[in-house]
């Protein structure tokens, strides 16, 4: 390591995930970047080929703690694509609902982390506080805060009961109010604006050349969104807009994510309304998958996630290929990080939203008294579920 | 030497008093910041516990760099701060000073920043050296504005550089913050001390998510404990200096005690509010801010002070 190289990683407080890149700096200015990914190789594709189709859906859920319904959705699409399996209308709405709720919580998580990266810890804590109700919605719908286990080949695993819907809509209204507040803050706050505007610009051409996906590309003026361009789930049945911004800087990515969250809330509300009316089964029983191959695409919060499955008529895939959105977004650093100060380069790297999982609830606070972790987590989470049940849909 | 002075330096109002008050006020800062962010915050003894825990930890010294400087820097900074605290405290609590002590304080405050630079640069670590470089730039940014701010009370008191005289003048003519020039200088001074304490939005040299605590990265054990203590001592020294220069110091008779506490709390609360509502600025933004806006404003305050407004 020579003196003008700043290593970020393999473990660095910026990402808290094993990712490694060297910033070549001249004083405070970044003149080059050397990317080195592959520190987290976990062999998911190989393991998936040893599992049955149903098991591999649960496995891909664990590729990422945040995209834990995008990967299963793409995976079930890939498997269904082999035999062109139709799924019931109700299941389509539930899939869309879960996918969009995930987008809301993922974007809120990113917003908080972006606040932390630019040294604005108040924004961090606030964004994560407002993310909490979304996780509660997941708990009401699926029983889990993360890793919902909702997807099945041919439908979904769990129905959304009619009596839950009113409570869910209530929480959604509350989240929307808070999001509108955050949107106002992003628009009005002069400090955030001056800190992020014009920082880490990814030009339209660069975004095209690097094949950027998701918010990273949409902030650079490319209206690419799988939800619009592919006929998947219930997206063709609900009304929503694809947000596109033109400047490609970090500020645009922030605003884009805030606006996208508001669109997601709109989609969720429509899905919940439809779930009141649409009756029917939630899963088509699929007996076997014939030999062939299929692809599944889904717009994860970070961009297009792609799954490819090849089958030989047995109950397990003989090839399973996954391409996560960060895999194509990370190389854009080479275009967006060079020529700007270190302080800007690091928030630019964070702006494509690298993801990590935090599911621990290690401390509870009752009446300002803190109880440490010795009491078991299971009891805590059961108590909380009971509390939510009482509060939201009075049982 | 008079043993009395040893008491002043080591117990009150010097080392021990400043350290204990600083750690306690540091708790207020952490607690209020936590409430800002919907967190619970640490218990009162947390800062003390952290300090004593670090004292018991191993000191790891990197192979490269200048070891003596690396180890000396936190303690020199600590001694400097204890001395400044004594000077300010003597004027505030005992109305004692000597000719020119404000100038000495201005110099010594710079020594503290220089020690951060020395300690950071002594390791040879790339993050530390970038942090040290940023600390120098930040010092360059805020120092001129700070000196101009300190000149305003000097001019308003009829060219007195003695802290005790500054207090006397304010007791006779009313506090300086009441005048236009004094108020402007106070506001600029508040921003300068934010930079001197490297609190958000000016925590550029430490920038945890960029350069991993910068100059303090390689520190561990007792030297790190003393850096932390130094940081908390600044929570006492700089607000006290502002109170002395602009708010007429403390008066410990009757209702005066309440006023004294209120003045101090006011400054601390302002610091915490600024700290919690701003992201970290870039180093060039900070330079821009101080050189384009703060310093000219301080100049205006100076001219107004000369004009007697």
Please describe what this structure looks like:
The complex is a heterodimer of chains A (395) and B (309). With 395 residues, chain A is an alpha+beta fold. In chain A, 49% of the residues lie in helices and 14% in strands. Chain A contains 15 helices and ten strands. About 2% of the residues of chain A have low confidence. By secondary structure, chain B is mainly alpha-helical. Chain B has one domain. The longest helix of chain B is centred in the middle third of the chain and has 31 residues. The interface between A and B is medium-sized, with 36 and 32 residues.
Major pleated sheet of chain A: 3 strands, antiparallel
Number of helices of chain A: 15
- What's the gyration radius of chain B in Å? 19 Å
Question: Quick check: average pLDDT of chain B?
Answer: 86
Tell me which oligomeric state these chains represent.
heterodimer
Radius of gyration of chain A: 21 Å
Order of helices and strands of chain B: HHHHHHHHHHHH
The assigned structural class of chain B equals mainly alpha
Q: Please estimate the helix content of chain B.
A: over 70%
Largest beta-sheet characterization of chain B: none
How are the SSEs ordered, and which strands pair?
The complex is a heterodimer of chains A (395) and B (309).
Chain A: E1 5-8, E2 20-26, E3 29-36, H1 44-49, H2 53-61, H3 70-83, H4 89-117, H5 121-142, E4 151-152, E5 155-156, H6 162-188, H7 190-196, H8 204-209, H9 214-218, H10 226-229, H11 250-277, E6 292-300, E7 303-311, E8 317-323, H12 325-329, H13 333-336, H14 342-351, E9 364-366, E10 369-371, H15 377-393
Antiparallel strand pairs in A: 1-2, 2-3, 4-5, 6-7, 7-8, 9-10
Chain B: H1 3-10, H2 15-36, H3 46-55, H4 67-94, H5 101-121, H6 126-156, H7 163-173, H8 180-196, H9 208-211, H10 221-246, H11 256-276, H12 283-307
Helix pairs in contact in B: 2-10, 2-11, 3-10, 4-5, 4-10, 5-6, 6-8, 6-12, 8-10, 8-12, 10-11
């Amino acid at each position: 390591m020579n003196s003008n190289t700043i290593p970020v990683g393999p473990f660095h407080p910026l990402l808290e995930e094993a990712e490694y890149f060297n910033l070549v700096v001249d004083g405070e200015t970044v003149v080059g970047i050397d990317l080195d990914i592959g520190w987290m190789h976990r062999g998911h594709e190989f393991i998936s080929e040893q599992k049955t189709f149903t098991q591999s859906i649960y496995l891909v859920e664990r590729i990422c703690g945040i995209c834990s319904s995008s990967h299963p959705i793409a995976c079930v699409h890939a498997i269904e694509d082999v035999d062109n399996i139709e799924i019931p209308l109700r299941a389509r709405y539930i899939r869309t609902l879960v996918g969009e709720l995930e987008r809301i919580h993922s974007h809120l998580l990113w917003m908080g982390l972006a606040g932390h990266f630019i040294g604005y810890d108040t924004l961090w804590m606030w964004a994560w506080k407002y993310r909490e109700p979304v996780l509660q919605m997941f708990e009401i719908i699926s029983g889990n805060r993360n890793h919902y286990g909702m997807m099945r080949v041919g439908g979904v695993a769990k129905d959304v009961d009619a009596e839950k819907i009113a409570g869910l809509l209530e929480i959604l209204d509350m989240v929307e109010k808070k999001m509108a507040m955050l949107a106002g803050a992003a628009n009005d706050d002069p400090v955030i604006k001056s800190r992020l505007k014009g920082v880490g610009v990814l030009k339209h051409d660069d975004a095209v050349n690097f094949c950027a996906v998701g918010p990273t590309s949409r902030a650079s003026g490319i209206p690419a969104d799988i939800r619009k361009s592919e006929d998947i789930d219930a997206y063709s049945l609900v009304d929503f807009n694809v947000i596109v911004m033109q400047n490609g800087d970090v500020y645009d990515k922030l605003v884009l994510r805030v606006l996208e969250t508001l669109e997601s809330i709109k989609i969720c509300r429509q899905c919940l309304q439809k779930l009141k009316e649409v009756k029917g089964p939630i899963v088509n029983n699929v007996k076997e998958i014939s030999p062939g191959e299929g692809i599944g695409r889904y717009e994860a919060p970070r961009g297009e996630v792609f799954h490819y499955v090849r089958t030989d008529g047995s109950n397990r895939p003989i090839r399973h290929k996954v391409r996560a959105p960060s895999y194509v977004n990370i190389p854009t650093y080479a275009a967006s990080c060079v020529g700007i100060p270190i302080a800007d380069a690091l928030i630019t790297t964070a702006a494509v939203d690298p993801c990590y999982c935090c599911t621990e609830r290690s401390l509870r606070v009752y009446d300002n008294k803190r109880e440490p972790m010795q009491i078991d987590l299971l009891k805590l989470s059961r108590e909380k579920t009971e509390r939510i049940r009482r509060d939201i849909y009075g049982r | 030497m008079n043993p009395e002075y040893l008491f002043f330096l080591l117990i009150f109002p010097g080392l021990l008093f400043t350290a204990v008050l600083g750690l306690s006020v540091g708790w207020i800062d952490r607690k209020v910041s936590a409430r800002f962010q919907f967190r619970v915050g640490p218990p009162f003894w947390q800062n003390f516990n952290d300090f004593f825990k670090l004292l018991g930890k191993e000191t790891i010294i990197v192979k490269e760099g200048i070891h003596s400087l690396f180890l000396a820097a936190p303690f020199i900074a600590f001694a400097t701060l204890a001395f400044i605290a004594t000077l300010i405290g003597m004027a505030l609590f005992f109305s004692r000073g000597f000719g020119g002590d404000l100038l000495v304080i201005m110099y010594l405050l710079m020594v503290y920043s220089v020690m951060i630079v020395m300690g950071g640069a002594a390791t040879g670590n790339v993050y530390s050296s970038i942090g040290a470089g940023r600390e120098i730039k930040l010092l360059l940014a805020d120092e001129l504005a700070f000196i101009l701010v300190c000149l305003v009370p000097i001019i308003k008191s009829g060219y007195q550089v003695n802290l005790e005289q500054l207090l006397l003048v304010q007791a006779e003519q009313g506090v300086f913050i009441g005048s236009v020039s004094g108020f402007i200088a106070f506001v600029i001074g508040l921003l300068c001390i934010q930079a001197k304490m490297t609190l958000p939005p000016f925590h550029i040299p430490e920038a945890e998510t960029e350069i991993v605590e910068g100059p303090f990265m390689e520190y561990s054990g007792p030297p790190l404990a003393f850096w932390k203590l130094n940081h908390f001592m600044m929570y006492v020294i700089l607000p006290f200096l502002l109170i002395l220069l602009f708010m007429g110091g403390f008066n410990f008779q009757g209702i005066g005690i309440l006023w004294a506490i209120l003045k101090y709390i006011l400054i601390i609360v302002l610091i915490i509010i600024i700290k919690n509502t701003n992201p970290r600025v870039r180093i060039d933004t900070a330079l821009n801010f101080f050189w384009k806006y703060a310093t000219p404003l301080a100049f205006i305050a100076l001219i107004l002070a000369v004009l007697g407004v």
